[in-house]
Write a structure and sequence with these properties.
The protein is an alpha/beta fold. It is built from eleven helices and 17 strands. The termini are far apart. Pfam families: GFO_IDH_MocA.
């Protein structure tokens, strides 16, 4: 099959709201297509298909197992509550389905290891749903960070992911239910912040993680808001630190600021760009205070990066490209994506452990 003719046939398991975004991404991606949708009832699957404009154009099933048993389904996108990930992800991998798993990947690293082992032993690709990693802006920022002549050594990273929610969300949303998504804001929003600092540090794990006492939980013990700090000590190439803040209780923010010895990068919308077709960030090099400290000698340069497809479509496209290489050319699954997810999960676990220990530092 020619590369231009290949289409990875996806099944979606679960009709969460985010699945609508991925269904659209699959329709925009030349090497992927949405083939089947499964929910706990056939009526709900049919309702989802109609909602995304694919009524009658996709298979609809009234159970998750039916999607996984369909021999025409090559891969599954799994946006179920986190507590259900390990079971259905392992079943999907055992049926030789490539796995695109919504974040957070699991409740802890032990669960994720079960998922990754199932994918490894069955020769299928694993990737989590961190869409921002696939945006060309992300690659452009990494190119600048990697050029020590421009950026120097990274000294500090700051990241936030916050959103204002209404009382109904705080009462009924699955992300505040301990039996469905026990990680709360840590899993939903903190995953992005942790992923961003690790990305900036080339996935070098911090030596120490510490949650701060400003942590807020709901009556069921689910995390609603938290700040945490990270340190790379003397064992690192350079001593550096990072701070993250994630919250369901603050106005929307998606900040990423990276400070080096020669420059700084700042993106206000690193998780979801303000616009689909173009995204920017501020780059400041050589900034100093003006005479008498009455201003600056320059303003940051705004760097803009065009994007032909939405970042979620680029994620699906990359996932499908890897799957084609496995099926058509006998390639091995790309180990980069499982490694990124596992390191993110390990640091997430350390934040939670620090909270559980009364905000004591946790060594990694």
């Amino acid at each position: 099959m020619a590369e231009s003719e290949f289409q990875l046939r996806f099944g979606i398991i679960g009709c969460a709201r985010i699945a609508r975004k991925l269904a659209r991404a699959m329709s925009l991606t030349p090497n992927a297509t949405l083939y089947a949708v499964g929910s706990r009832s056939l009526a709900k699957a049919e309702e989802f298909a109609a909602l995304v404009g694919l009524s009658g154009a996709v298979k609809t099933y009234g159970s998750y197992d039916q999607v996984l048993d369909d021999p025409c389904v090559d891969a599954v996108y799994l946006p179920l509550p986190t507590s259900l990930h390990v079971h259905w992800a392992v079943v999907a991998a055992s049926k030789k389905k490539h796995l695109l798993l919504e974040k957070p990947t699991a409740l802890d690293a032990a669960e994720l290891d079960r998922i990754l082992e199932a994918c490894r032993s069955n020769g299928v690709q694993f990737m989590d749903g961190s869409m921002w990693l696939h945006h060309p802006r992300t690659r452009k920022m990494k190119d600048l960070l990697s050029d020590e002549r421009v950026f120097g050594q990274i000294n500090y990273v700051y990241s936030t992911s916050t959103m204002t929610v209404n009382p109904e969300f705080l009462q009924n949303n699955i992300r505040v239910k301990p039996d469905l998504d026990a990680l709360g804001a840590l899993g939903d929003l903190g995953w992005y912040c942790i992923g961003a600092i690790l990305w900036a540090k080339n996935y070098e794990l911090p030596t120490a993680v510490e949650a701060l006492p400003d942590t807020t939980k709901n009556p069921a013990g689910v995390i609603l808001s938290c700040t945490a700090t990270f340190h790379w000590g003397i064992s690192s190439n350079t001593s550096s630190a990072a701070t993250i803040h994630f919250s369901f209780l603050s106005h929307t923010s998606m900040d990423l600021a990276i400070s080096g010895s020669n420059a700084t990068i700042h993106a206000n919308d690193f998780i979801i760009p303000y616009e689909e077709g173009s995204a920017g960030f501020e780059l400041s090099c050589g900034a100093k205070f003006a005479e008498l400290h009455i201003g600056w000698n320059m303003e940051p340069k705004v760097v803009r990066v065009e994007c032909e497809l939405p970042q979620e479509a680029l994620m699906v496209q990359e996932f499908a490209r890897i799957a084609q290489g496995i099926r058509t050319y006998g390639h091995q699954p790309d180990g980069k994506w499982p490694e990124i997810s596992r390191k993110t999960q390990l640091v997430l676990d350390a934040v939670k452990k620090s909270i559980d220990l009364g905000f004591k530092p946790v060594q990694l």
